[in-house]
Amino acid sequence: MTETIKIESTTADNSADVTAGSKSWFYTDVVKDHFFNPRNLFKTNEEAEGYQYDGMGMVGSPACGDMMKIWIKVGDGRIKDCKWQTFGCASAIASTSMMSVMISENEGMKVEDAMKLKPMDIVKRLGDLPTRKFHCSVLGDKALRAAINDHYEKSGQNDKVEKEKVRVVDHIAKVTDHDIEEAVLEGAVTLEAVQRKTKVGIGNKSCLPEVEQLIRFYKEKYYGAD
Ligand code: FES
């Protein structure tokens, strides 16, 4: 995979959907540092091809179509090394660079703790991230979980594998819990905003209590409690 770097425009945010987390369009110095000097990034395919890893995970973002690939080395139940490549934007590069540092610093994070790492933990170490870019920080985090699952499968620890299940919440509009999650990650944190993005519950009002519960759950997960 060839890594590409996009510089995003800094046009003013005119969306009424963005009501959670940071509304800033400015990047912190830490974000800029990790974007311009990404840590643990494979700069060439040759580097990636020669790497001996214990787990590899690759995911795509439904929100933007970008891709992320993560490789990990594991020793004594800890992440000893983490490498990555992405087609993602500046925010994805900065947040994955920071994530790779967080899980491999100080002798390495325990694998089970790395599995529970939240995008919010990474955003805090970055100082902040514009709300609309939160879905970019989730990309590295999801690829990491896929890499850890791959490691568990390769090492015969199948009982520890945590696969994400998709559940349809509105059978008429065919909207899943993942669609709600993506809408929240794009900054839609009210029922009305989520409905504008997904059409959930328009022809099936019986699912609305569950939709509101999911919005609350994902809002707290990605943006913290009110
Ligand atoms: Fe796709 Fe950021 S816009 S990863």
Describe the structure.
The protein has 226 residues and is of the alpha+beta class. It has two domains: 29-160, Sufe protein. Chain: A; 168-223, Orthogonal Bundle (Arc Repressor Mutant, subunit A), CATH 1.10.10. The protein is 42% helix and 13% strand. It contains nine helices and five strands. It has helices at residues 29-36, 45-49, 90-104, 111-115, 119-126, 134-154, 177-185, 191-198, 208-223; strands at residues 55-60, 67-75, 78-86, 168-170, 175-176. The strands form two sheets. The protein has a three-stranded antiparallel β-sheet. A two-stranded antiparallel sheet has the order 4-5. A hairpin with a 6-residue loop joins strand 1 and strand 2. Residues 1-21 have low confidence and may be disordered. It binds FE2/S2 (inorganic) cluster. FE2/S2 (inorganic) cluster is lined by residues 61, 64, 66, 88-89, 91-92, 133, 136, 139.
Summarize the structure.
The chain is α+β, with helices and mostly antiparallel strands.
What are the SSEs and their pairings?
Layout: H1 29-36, H2 45-49, E1 55-60, E2 67-75, E3 78-86, H3 90-104, H4 111-115, H5 119-126, H6 134-154, E4 168-170, E5 175-176, H7 177-185, H8 191-198, H9 208-223
Antiparallel strand pairs: 1-2, 2-3, 4-5
This protein binds FE2/S2 (inorganic) cluster.
